């Protein structure tokens, strides 16, 4: 699988890639230069089987981390995260879409453009209809 080309943006992670969660060490250990708390405005978080989905929603907000890859690890990390999120550019069967969005650093509300994996349109439609929204937009507070 080939990831679409794009600028070397940081990643906004909001679920199993957050520190302390199942995929954090598996995918991010040794590949990251910095992690800092951030939030994604204009989105809502939904519970999926084993992982969350973000969908665009005016007035909503998702809590997460802004992850900056080490320059020498960026291409490898981008490809690994695309595989994890089952994202294939242009494939209608993809579960997520990788899109560039502005997220806000929690410490100072500075906007930073970052890659975000949002639920693909067909998945988002199902979540809006019958999904379980995680109130407060924080994956860690789901239970």
TrEMBL record:
Sequence ranges assigned to domain Gamma-glutamylcyclotransferase AIG2-like in this UniProt record: 11-140
CDD domains documented for this protein: GGCT_like
SUPFAM superfamilies on file: Gamma-glutamyl cyclotransferase-like (SSF110857)
Name of the protein this chain belongs to: Gamma-glutamylcyclotransferase AIG2-like domain-containing protein
Organism: Streptomyces yokosukanensis
Source species taxonomy: Bacteria, Bacillati, Actinomycetota, Actinomycetes, Kitasatosporales
